[in-house]
Amino acid sequence: MISEPNLKQKLLSHNVVFHQAEPASTKENNCLSAAKACNLNDTCKKYRSAYINPCTSRVSTSEVCNKRKCHKALRQFFDKVPPKHSYGMLFCSCPAGDQTACVERRRQTIVPVCSYEDKDKPNCLSLQNTCKTNYICRSRLADFLSNCQPEAGSISGCLLENYANCLLSYSGLIGTVMTPNYVRSSGISLSPWCDCSSSGNSKSDCDKFAEFFTNNRCLRNAIKAFGNGTDVGVWQPQPPIQPTVEPSTTRRGKAWTNSVVDVLTDVSQLGANSDSYHICGPLQVQNLVSNQTAKAAFCPNHQLDESGTLNAIAGSSPSELNSLHLSTLVLSVASTALELEAIPKG
User: Fold this and answer.
1) 67: which of 20, 77, 121, 207 is 20 to 30 A away, CA to CA?
2) Using CA atoms, how far apart are residues 184 and 103, in angstroms rounded to an integer?
3) What is the rounded CA–CA span in Å between residue 179 and residue 157?
4) What average pLDDT does range 54-70 have in this prediction?
5) What domain range includes position 158?
6) 66 and 110: one domain?
């Protein structure tokens, strides 16, 4: 039998080993640290709990969860929670070869058993067609394909040289039928829940679409840069270019600017529509450095739902669809008019 002093000493020695090993493990597991940071932030903790509940509640013996509610809660999480915390968990960096702790925790961020996985894997082109039937998914997939387009000759790996917009577009897909996630492999490998089997003559098109996720240099570099904290320069918004205006046109320019602001204010009061995602998306990411008042004025935070009304939008009349793009057209006309006003009259 171990005497009392010896037993106490043995337990203490185990505690010493435990406390010495834990910091090293925690330091390497950035995803665990990000989860802890989320729990210390009221907003992050609130919306994380809001999606964990529906994403982990079994509905029946055949259904592991209510996927629609899970997806909606996930969209709210990435819409409401500051990127510092939401992206911290989604894009945290992991040591090479770490499969059991950090990588798996990162993969589990969106509760993939509910939000990502399904009984069968559809063909990727079929999944893309399903996505196109829903306004939110179609719009966000188009943003992703545009903002994360790779470019071999680019230093960043992105055609548009903007990591922030790429990550915003990627996270925007989470909570749709095109929800992507990390696959079970080393490194950064992502994919929607689909494959290219049974593609027939469309195999090359399917592979090309799938590789936009699985082998995308722009997306991979953006995630690495965020996780490593080396993306500061890329995340900063570009300073506006100040046009040179002649004194005689200054007053006219000021009056025109006021008119444009009035028009934009009217547009922002037309009501919620998902097209504001295209205009306000970059501003949501740049909340870390941008003016909150300006963002609130032109970028109201609307809850998006994949069901009901928004599905009806896809089948709306041309006149109704035109109103969805009014804000974009006004910005374009305003920009052109400002350029014309700045041209001196001969």
Assistant:
1) 207
2) 9
3) 23
4) 94
5) 119-235
6) yes
